[in-house]
Amino acid sequence: MTEGRVYNFSAGPSVLPEPVLQRARAEMMNYRGTGMSVMEMSHRSPAFSEIFTETKEKFRSMLRIPDSHEILFLQGGATLQFAAVPMNLMEGKTADYAVTGNFSGKAAKEAEKYGTVRLACNTEACGHSRIPAQEELCLNPDAKYFYYCSNNTIYGTEWQYVPQTAAPLVCDMSSDILSRPVDVARYGLIFAGAQKNMAPAGLTVVIADRSLTGRELPYTPQIMSYKTMIEHDSLLNTPPCWCIYMLSLVLDWLQEQGGVEGMEQGKRERAKLVYDFLDGSRLFRAHAEPGSRSDMNVTFRTGDDGLDAEFIAFAARRGLVNLKGHKIAGGMRASLYNAMPLEGAGELVRTMKEFERKHV
Amino acid sequence: MTEGRVYNFSAGPSVLPEPVLQRARAEMMNYRGTGMSVMEMSHRSPAFSEIFTETKEKFRSMLRIPDSHEILFLQGGATLQFAAVPMNLMEGKTADYAVTGNFSGKAAKEAEKYGTVRLACNTEACGHSRIPAQEELCLNPDAKYFYYCSNNTIYGTEWQYVPQTAAPLVCDMSSDILSRPVDVARYGLIFAGAQKNMAPAGLTVVIADRSLTGRELPYTPQIMSYKTMIEHDSLLNTPPCWCIYMLSLVLDWLQEQGGVEGMEQGKRERAKLVYDFLDGSRLFRAHAEPGSRSDMNVTFRTGDDGLDAEFIAFAARRGLVNLKGHKIAGGMRASLYNAMPLEGAGELVRTMKEFERKHV
Questions:
Q1: Phi/psi of residue A236, each to 5°?
Q2: Residue among B16, B201, B238 minimizing CB distance to A13
Q3: Which of B102, B204, B215, B218 is spaced 20 to 30 A from B23 at the CA atom?
Q4: CB-based contact A295:A336 (threshold 8 Å)
Q5: pLDDT-based confidence at B246, cuts 50/70/90?
Q6: Is CATH 3.40.640.10 the classification given to domain A22-256?
Q7: How far is A203 from chain B (nearest CA, A)?
Q8: At a CB cut-off of 8 Å and minimum separation 6, what does B60 contact?
Q9: Residue A1: per-residue pLDDT
């Protein structure tokens, strides 16, 4: 790691690969002989059109997205998708929502504005510490879609299977997209905010089965209509150009690291290091139950809020920052996204060990 | 200008001040000792919170925004505001729209989804070459607001006065915000996409009179509700952090150049250079009528499409790029935003003169 840089465990926006930042810096004043920064380019210029098209192609190839599915580069984050999904797919009727954390809960609440929401599950009573099994899901045959969030950043749980449902699957993959292969054909719609595994905040990627689009409610704003945005190849209005460029650089880096298969191996190694330590620790304990644990966000605590705060400060003095858990969950959270090197996870374990020795 | 850089006359995204890009580059890997890029910062971190708060304060101070008005940093561009404005302010009733160009026309069309749109004027018949006078505006006493776009990038016209209306004024200032002082108290709502005079694409600034908010339609998505976003100080979800940081650097630069008063003087000088030449030219002629002309976007043509294309290529070979007019207007367009140096306008005139000598 370059001198002065830290290990940044932020849940999002989060660490970006250092070679990506270096490349962006090198191209900042004059992108490949154009005489300008990517930030200054018309979104209709040949230079930016090339970036846009190549990024889409790299993304499609990386996740092996079938031709039945369109890729959209949008704005507004997952939060705008919480409304866009029901506006486009619910037809004013009903949909099933699996509530396994904060963001799926928010999505369900927003969807109530546009139709009838039925909960396929709600893990609130157990502090969202586990993901329900397939047979625990309560499925409505009339549902226009089944909605879930594949990874819960706040509670540190992750779906280890793809739900089997009659209704099309809609999945918020904001915090684990590009961390593993995905069988995209099984999904009606996937969306993800970029600021965890893909690019800086400000870009939302949507992968939509074309055959599900075109049924939006009449008051759907133009840029929230999947059909309209597909017709305009995301360029009805000015897209978040810089974030798309950064995604392009991240995809190049990811390809060099072995693509999503490489990312999957890397995330397993990082998470195993940390969970193995936690399961044997006399001071720290993991929040999520085995079988539901996220490789992306490891949540843990000592059981003593004061000691948690002490540990967070202790780690920060050693250059391991943003380990504080989300305010609604408390404790600690180590986000181990694609761009976190294995050494970062190793440093975290060494730091926990050292702290443990002093306090047990 | 740094070697290799061009004069970029793009209408948006457009040229940024060179010192701003240099500063962003210098801070790219490690922002002021935090050990990370601004692109990697949690939007809730102390470092980013400081950037966020300071940017808001600098913006308020720069435009002398009264306490009655809130500043929001949003996503989705002006196009999402075309829906957000009627969703929040029309109450399903009616509003007046002054259609003086492409984007006000689009805004009026989008608003029809949410209530009854009445046109206060429509300059389409004259090719949007002029802005109507106050007495030409057809005002409806029942209008919930009066909507206009202060500068038309495509046709190169700009309102030289603030309309007097009983209904609150709503203004799309995407292409002339920060180019002159504005009496914000006269407006109910101002919005602007950042990618012309403020920052890279992906940020939308809204300035809203608090007393007009809270009347949104029930199906308004959370992040499109001005009231909700005011309550969360724009941080209901992750904002476009990098663009906000870039805006902060642009505001610093702008302050050094004399603020909006300095910008107003600069834009007048640049535009005068170009219009004076056009009015005396035997080859080129300006599209917009005197009294309606934009200082931000100068539209002109030779009257011969082939010759226009030749000029655009001629200028590009001299490092003056993106002079092609918008496809629906044709001809040429020179965008002279805040970050365009006076020398850029001078070079443009010299290039037009040289071309004229060869062709007249």
A1: -60, -40
A2: B238
A3: B204
A4: yes
A5: very high
A6: yes
A7: 8
A8: B71
A9: 67
Is the confidence at residue B3, as pLDDT, over 80? no
* Residues forming beta bridges with residue A205, ordered by sequence position: A73, A192
Domain chopping of chain B, boundaries:
22-256, 258-359
- Interface list for A 168-207 with B (CB within 8 A): 193, 195, 200-203
The per-residue pLDDT for range B335-355, each reduced to its tens digit, is 999 999 999 999 999 999 999
pLDDT of residue B1: 67
| Predicted confidence (pLDDT) at residue B2 exceeds the cutoff of 80 | no
**Which position has the token pair 């730091």?**
A351
Domain covering A258-359 in this structure, CATH number: 3.90.1150.10
Interface ipTM above 0.90: yes
Query: CB contact, 8 Å: B278 with chain A?
Result: no
In one-letter notation, the amino acid at residue A64 is R
Give how far Cα B184 sits from Cα of A176, B87, B149, B187, B261, Å: 43, 22, 15, 5, 15
Find, among A129, A130, A153, the residue nearest to A10 by Cα. A153
Residue identified by tokens 């909605």 is A147
Question: In this structure, what token pair is assigned to residue A194?
Answer: 């970029």
HEC per residue, A227-276:
HHHHHCCCCCCCCCHHHHHHHHHHHHHHHHCCHHHHHHHHHHHHHHHHHH
Answer whether A69's CB lies under 8 Å from A186's CB: no
Q: What is the mean pLDDT of residues B156-171?
A: 98
CA A16 – CA B40 distance, rounded (Å):
6
CB of B170 closer than 8 Å to CB of B198: no
B221–A40 C-beta distance less than 8 A = no
**pLDDT (average), residues B116-135:** 96
A13, A76, A240 member nearest B39 (Cβ): A13
Contact assignment for A238 to B195 by CB distance below 8 Å: yes
Is the model's pLDDT at B295 over the cut of 70? Answer: yes
- Give the pLDDT mean for A238-266: 98
Tokens of B174: 């995407």
Helix axes A342-359, A259-280, angle to 10 degrees: 10
Each residue of A56-79: pLDDT tens digit? 999 999 999 999 999 999 999 999
Contacts 24+ apart (CB under 8 A), A115-119: A115/A86, A115/A90, A115/A91, A115/A144, A118/A94, A118/A143
In angstroms, the separation between the Cα of residue B289 and the nearest Cα of chain A is 27
Residues of B in contact with A329 (CB under 8 A): none
- Are the beta carbons of A221 and B80 separated by less than 8 Å? yes
Contacts of B243 in chain A (CB under 8 A): 202, 240, 242
- Report pTM: 0.98
Residue A312 sits at the chain B interface (C-beta within 8 Å): no
Tokens of A115: 């139709």
In contact, B257 and B263? CB cutoff 8 Å: yes
